[in-house]
Amino acid sequence: MRFYDCKTAPSPRRVRIFLAEKGIEIETVQVDLGAGEQFSEAFRKVNPDCVVPALELDDGSCISEVLAICQYIEETHPEPALMGGTAEKRARVSMWNAKVEQQGLWAMADAFRNSAKGLAGRAVTGLEAYPQIPELAERGRARVLQFFGRLDAHLGNNEFLAGESFSMADITALVFVDFARWIKIHVPDNASNLARWHVVVSKRPSAAA
Amino acid sequence: MRFYDCKTAPSPRRVRIFLAEKGIEIETVQVDLGAGEQFSEAFRKVNPDCVVPALELDDGSCISEVLAICQYIEETHPEPALMGGTAEKRARVSMWNAKVEQQGLWAMADAFRNSAKGLAGRAVTGLEAYPQIPELAERGRARVLQFFGRLDAHLGNNEFLAGESFSMADITALVFVDFARWIKIHVPDNASNLARWHVVVSKRPSAAA
Questions:
Q1: For residue B68, how many C-alpha atoms fall within 13 Å in the half-sphere facing its CB?
Q2: Residue of chain A with shortest Cα separation from B154
Q3: By the CB < 8 Å criterion, does A169 face chain B?
Q4: Which of A97, A118, B165, B181 has its CA 20 to 30 A from that of A175?
Q5: What is the pLDDT of residues B140-165, one digit of tens each?
Q6: Contact, A179 vs A172, CB < 8 A?
Q7: What is the Cα–Cα distance from B1 to B150, expressed in whole angstroms?
Q8: Distance between CA B139 and CA B106 in Å, rounded?
Q9: How is domain B87-208 classified at the architecture level of CATH?
């Protein structure tokens, strides 16, 4: 297997943390997104969507999309389980992972990609050039703050996002919260449950990945 | 189990098709989105995100998010497999499902929710009121057309989205293509692979769900 990564980007960090939790080391290729290496002919053969992360299997075929990559790793390296130990728990991990993606991470990406100077004309990941929409950046910021409130309320009754064990959903949420700092959005002072959880998950050695 | 549905909406249709393929009938409650029933006190106890679909389990707890619901059904009713039969096939189904969601379905939702007259002030699903962004509706339309092209190219080499068998990824793509008609975007005349696939999947009895 070969893992296509970009050390500075949030999406592949979800896979890096996942691998670190499993204790797996894989041959890793850094793709320099800043230099536009994702658009090179060589990388387009790996992933025609021109995004990282991507996982090349031993037969040369490629799996992209964070969830698909992590699912494949979970099945081929089951311990420790990061996607739940029963059908119901797996559904809860999947549900919270989807909520954090849709209400948190994609809103944060809207905020960042539609405002960052370096991404003018590249407001959507991938090959096509789309102009930034400043109103969407504003909406994204508002949604990130709103979702912080929801996470805080949920974590008042739950040790981790999908219940009592650390899971893929916590990885997605950690990457989301840390990504929000890029546009200077921090966990609000009154979000004590979210702050408590963030300290706990950030102390895990995998968080350095 | 109890399934919270809205017969006219695209997201719960993904679950309805999934259930029809499995041959499962579940007690179903219609939530009238047009009348704002998703915001009622009663439904907020089922799903505080105020969206359908949702699946209430026998212990009264609730699973929301299409992928999590389908995953739960797949595990509790494995035949016929709709999410792949091996770790690698499951990863491919998951990858294509994610691609169709992010590049197709969410772009289509952007196009629709930011332009439909009835959704003024409700441009994002859920409880919060966000104004429509006409530029985002335009970007959504452009992305939908672009993704039609990608699907067409992919289906030139693949019978179904994730390879040789019908899967969850095809269900997501069928709902996406049919949803696009709501804003008068149809499969382009030159997209013959996509058109071929659309005829095949639409003929399955489950497509009527």
A1: 27
A2: A48
A3: no
A4: A118
A5: 999 999 999 999 999 999 999 998 99
A6: no
A7: 38
A8: 11
A9: Up-down Bundle (1.20)
Please indicate whether, in this complex, the C-beta atoms of B65 and A95 are within 8 angstroms of each other.
yes
Q: Is B122 on the interface with A (CB under 8 A)?
A: no
Residue identified by tokens 């994702």 is A38
Distance CA B139, CA B143 (A): 6
Angle between helices B168-180 and B134-155 (to 10 degrees): 130
Domain parsing of chain A, residue ranges: 2-76, 87-208
Tell whether A99 lies on the interface with B, counting CB pairs under 8 A: yes
The answer to whether domain A2-76 and domain A87-208 are alike in fold is no
Q: What does each of the 209 residues of chain A score in pLDDT, given as a tens digit?
A: 999 999 999 999 999 999 999 999 999 999 999 899 999 999 999 999 999 999 999 999 999 999 999 999 999 999 999 999 999 999 999 999 999 999 999 999 999 999 999 999 999 998 899 999 999 999 999 999 999 999 999 999 999 999 899 999 999 999 999 999 999 999 999 999 999 999 999 999 999 99
The pLDDT of residue B127 is 86
Farthest CA pair distance, chain A: 51
- What is the C-alpha to C-alpha distance for residues B65 and B125, in angstroms, rounded to an integer? 13
Give the ranges where chain B is alpha helix by DSSP (H): 10-22, 41-46, 66-76, 87-99, 106-113, 134-155, 168-180, 192-203
pTM: 0.97
Give me the half-sphere count of Cα atoms (radius 13 Å) on the Cβ side of residue A135: 10
CB B169 within 8 A of CB B96: yes
Residue A193 falls in which region: left (phi positive, over 0), alpha (psi -120 to 50) or beta: alpha
Q: Between chains, do B65 and A143 touch, taking CB under 8 Å as contact?
A: no
Name the residue facing B95 among A68, A95, A123 (closest C-beta): A68
Mean pLDDT of B44-54: 94
B130/A133 Cβ within 8 A = no
Cα–Cα distance between B162 and B143 in angstroms, integer?
21
Name the class of domain B2-76.
alpha beta
B88–A69 C-beta distance less than 8 A: no
